[in-house]
Amino acid sequence: MCGIAGIFHCGTIKPVDPHRVEAMTDALVHRGPDGGGVWTAPGVGLGHRRLSIIDVAGSPQPMHSPDGRAVIVFNGEIYNFRELRRELEDEGARFRTDGDTEVILAAWQRWGVDCLPRLHGMFAFALYDLDRRELFLARDRLGVKPLFTAMLSDGSMAFASELKGLLAHPLLRREVDPLAVEDYLAWGYVPDHRSFLKGVEKLPAGHFRLLRHDNPPAAPRQWWDVSFADRDQGKTADLSAQLLHHMREAVSSRMVSDVPLGAFLSGGVDSSSVVALMAEISRDPVRTCSIGFDVAALDETAYAQQVAERFGTEHRSRMVAPDDFQLVDQLAGMFDEPFADASALPTWRVCQLARETVTVALSGDGADEAFAGYRRQVFHLREEQARSALPQALRGPVFGALGRVWPKADWAPRPLRAKATLLSLAEDGATGYARALSVIPPEGRFALYSTSFARGLGEYRAETPLVEMMRAAPARSGLDRAQYADLKFWLPGDILTKVDRTSMNVSLEAREPLLDHRLIEFAARLPHRERVRGKQGKWLLKHTMERYLPQDILYRPKQGFVTPLAEWFRGPLAATARTIVSAGGLARTGWFNPQALAAIAEDHIAGRRDNSRVLWQLLMLDKSMRGLGV
């Protein structure tokens, strides 16, 4: 795993200052503490920081092809590189190293952009072809590895694995995009179609760009997508056998490493499934680690310990204490852009714990998106059934009116907290799912905004890109569209961003076997009954893993990493909450209504409402703006 950065002149050829590229890569040293390098030629500069995983002694970057006609900087792992290497050797290619980086170079020289579908893994890379005078930027199918780009005032494009790499370039302007503020307050992160700073873009997952010196910058082009348009019709037993085969292949391919390897183990279905298959494959005990909380209702370490004992792993656990909120400045600094998924804190902690003994750790991320494991997806399936039974002409006025007057009773039992459901049922499926996925719904956000800021947004609403994505999805049903949105919108923007930044902060490589693209494509073809049965999401996965895992691991309610934010903001962070809304940087932006912000804090501290997620969003927004100097 590594960090990459570079500069490329579009429409002209100017010298590239290697010291600028070096400064960009120095900002990414946490991603690659084992070495670095810079290469420049007329109009182009590539920089690299290396975390050695495969071919530890060899494979320095930037790497040149044997004929010297192509140069690459690469962040990620290609899990099938040995098979590709044999294929390329049969066609005459010769290799000087034992790693995967040189295989990408040879694949480009043999197949051009058509090399991308042959690469199985996680990656973001920049490859310069000296013959074609062309820069090839590419990102993996699901967006496991990030790549930021920005057009600069001197006509060059800068790129880097993280925004902080671009921030090291003196020509990058630091002006906040107001639409990104709207996006962030809706989702708790800035999705991949936007960046917090104007002029900065993210190469979308499953896309590439080809840039030439004699042309304006070309737009990204999609090279992979997942389709829910087809269905496998096999029997459950046959589909279960296929699923297990895909999972075994995905796990085994990600256990190839020349450095110590382990796994995150939360005690949930997904991480426990990965550990079970690792234990089946490995001769030695699997190294596992987990994080717990000193709030009993949030702690799952007993389940993790149960799985560890079942498979004889070398298990370590650590508790997250209430005073971990003091690390919020460091947490904000990892993401550059505001990022309010509070599970980033325990994720960072478990990465720190893992890094004490391993350099690579496998995770269980991806199964919820692929197999319909989120409660919101199961609810959406039921809501879609209700929508199909009731015409919009009836649903809109009746449920809309009920939803508007229904109280927001955070303190009440779940069946009485129907406001969001009623408002969702009043809308079409895509709009309703966008509401379910959002942290703050549109009416809540606009109640916080100042009049001038709301006017500046015009007709834009953060939900619009997600709704359009769902409506255009290659899908048959509402559940398909919800999962498509989770894989294409939520997963790269939230989950994978969280894991990449927290793991890379401690120079740990995280691998996600349940995001193997063949497994994802298989899951997208499953009939509804194999994804959801009754109230059980992820049904086929759980059924398949019954031979490995006990019932209380498979079928207990989903927990996930939860941080005790509500308690923090009524206790040690109460004064911080008041400061954010009254005297912090946010109060000086003019974006918000001061009275509305104050009410958010006071209602939460008094226990009238649970506004902890909104307060956490505001806190992380304030911290990120300070870190960015805007």
Protein model, in words:
This protein has 630 residues and is α+β, with helices and mostly antiparallel strands. Among the domains are: 2-175 and 201-222, Aminohydrolase, N-terminal nucleophile (Ntn) domain (Glutamine Phosphoribosylpyrophosphate, subunit 1, domain 1), CATH 3.60.20; 564-630, no CATH class. It is 44% helix and 15% strand. The chain has 28 helices and 17 strands. The strands form three sheets. It has a six-stranded antiparallel β-sheet. A six-stranded antiparallel β-sheet has the order 4-5-6-7-11-12, covered by helices on one side.
What's this model, at a glance?
44% of the residues lie in helices and 15% in strands. By secondary structure, the chain is of the alpha+beta class. Among the domains are: 196 residues, 4-Layer Sandwich (Glutamine Phosphoribosylpyrophosphate, subunit 1, domain 1); 67 residues, no CATH class.
The structure class reads alpha+beta
CATH superfamily of one domain: Aminohydrolase, N-terminal nucleophile (Ntn) domain
| Overall geometric form | globular
Rg over CA atoms: 24 Å
How are strands sequenced across the largest beta sheet? 2-3-1-9-8-10
Q: What's the CATH architecture name of one domain?
A: 4-Layer Sandwich
Strand content: 5-15%
Helical content class: 40-55%
The parts where pLDDT drops under 50 for at least 5 residues are 411-416
Question: Which key terms come to mind for this protein?
Answer:
six-stranded antiparallel sheet; 630 residues; globular; alpha+beta; single chain; Glutamine Phosphoribosylpyrophosphate, subunit 1, domain 1
